[in-house]
Amino acid sequence: MTSLFHDIIFGPIHSRRLGLSLGVNLLPTESKLCSFDCIYCECGWNAEHRGLRRFNPREEVQRLLSETLQKMVADGTPPDVITFAGNGEPTMHPDFEAIIDDTIALRDKFCPSAKVSVLSNATQLHREGVRRALLRVDNPILKLDSAFDETVRRMNNPQNNNYSVRDVVDGMKSFDGQMILQTMFLRGTCEEVAIDNTVEREVAAWLELVAEIRPRQVMVYSLDRDTPCPTLEKVSREELQQIAARVEALGIPCSVA
């Protein structure tokens, strides 16, 4: 069953990719707000969670994060990472850059060894403040699930009809390698339409973009939680490892989850 995050600060959870992760949700706590509507989103479909479209206030995020970090440190369990995720796309928040500045200051004060990560679908890279903020965090983790616009529309359902893989790739290239690329691999059907981004045509084209972007790391993964579309299939670890080996042949580290 898909579900929302009902708190501004959530966790900590043991992340497959990041370690002991304290989550920060900048999106509404009772609804979903995202520039994608991914067929595999653990929060469910956008239409299922319309509710109140209210971003969490910067001051409230700062207060709650400060209180939680102080408690975790006092308990001897500081987080490995502070991760911006939650009920949608965090970089849509109008005060995203300022919140990142607040978070870095709190991290430096209470748990300087912790990393700051942002899980983003990369749809807001055209906003200069978002790019600046992402360049200041330790781990800007940016999504690209396919090299083809048609596949992205099937897998991610961009809410902007003008979404373009080329525009996103150009935005990623502006990071000069100071970013992590994240890709979900899956197969199956959704609304009786076949979807499979593991076929050779998909993987080969995606690898060309990886070589062009040249991120400092690539993360490949498959389904691990419930999805709003029930007819999707998880890709095996062995298949993911084969894809990862092709990434590493480009001289780019690649992790599998």
Notes on the structure:
The chain has 257 residues and is of the alpha/beta class. The chain has 7 helices and 11 strands. It has an 8-stranded mixed beta sheet with strand order 1-2-3-4-5-6-9-11. Strands 8-7-10 form a 3-stranded antiparallel beta sheet, covered by helices on one side. β1 (9-15) and β2 (19-25) form a beta hairpin. It is globular, with a radius of gyration of 18 Å. The two termini are 21 Å apart. The mean pLDDT is 95.
Question: What distance separates the N and C termini?
Answer: 21 Å
Secondary-structure-derived class: alpha/beta
Query: What is the residue-averaged pLDDT?
Result: 95
The proportion of residues forming helix, as a percent range, comes to 25-40%
Beta-strand content estimate: 15-25%
Physical arrangement of strands within the biggest beta sheet:
1-2-3-4-5-6-9-11
The helix count comes to: 7
What is the chain-wise order of helices and strands?
EEHEHEHEHHEEEHEEHE
Instruction: Please summarize the sheet with the most strands.
Output: 8 strands, mixed
Query: Could you give the count of β-strands?
Result: 11
- Unreliable stretches covering 5 or more consecutive residues: none
Structure at a glance:
The chain has helices at 58-74, 96-110, 128-136, 149-155, 165-173, 200-213, 237-248, and strands spanning 9-15, 19-25, 81-85, 115-120, 139-143, 180-184, 186-190, 193-196, 217-221, 232-234, 254-256.
